[in-house]
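name: query_chain
kind: protein
chains: 1
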Amino acid sequence: MDPSLVALAVTFAAGVTFLAVLTAHRRGPFAFALARLNADRRAYAHVTASLCGVVLGLIALPLVAWRWPSETSAWAAPAFIALAMLANAVQPMFRKGAS
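structure:
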C-alpha cells in the first residue's frame, strides 16, 4: 500500500477532527449552519458524533487496506457508505438509552 494514501487519510481525518471539535464548541462552518437553523444542543451533538464516525472510518480504511489490499479495493467505497448510513441509523437508539 502506498504510504502517501495513509498520510492523506490521516491528514484528512485530522481536518475532520478539527471540524468536530469546532462544532462541539459551537464554532466553525457546521455550527454556523446549525445556528442559522436555530438548532438545539442535541443537533450539535449529533453532527459532532457523525463527524467522529467519519474520522473513525478514515482511520480504519487505510488499516484494513494495508491488511487486506485486494479485498479492500473491491468493497471499500460501498462499505464506507453503508457503514456510515448504518452508524447514523443506529445512533438514535443509543441516544434514547442515554437520555
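note: Residues 3-98 form one domain.
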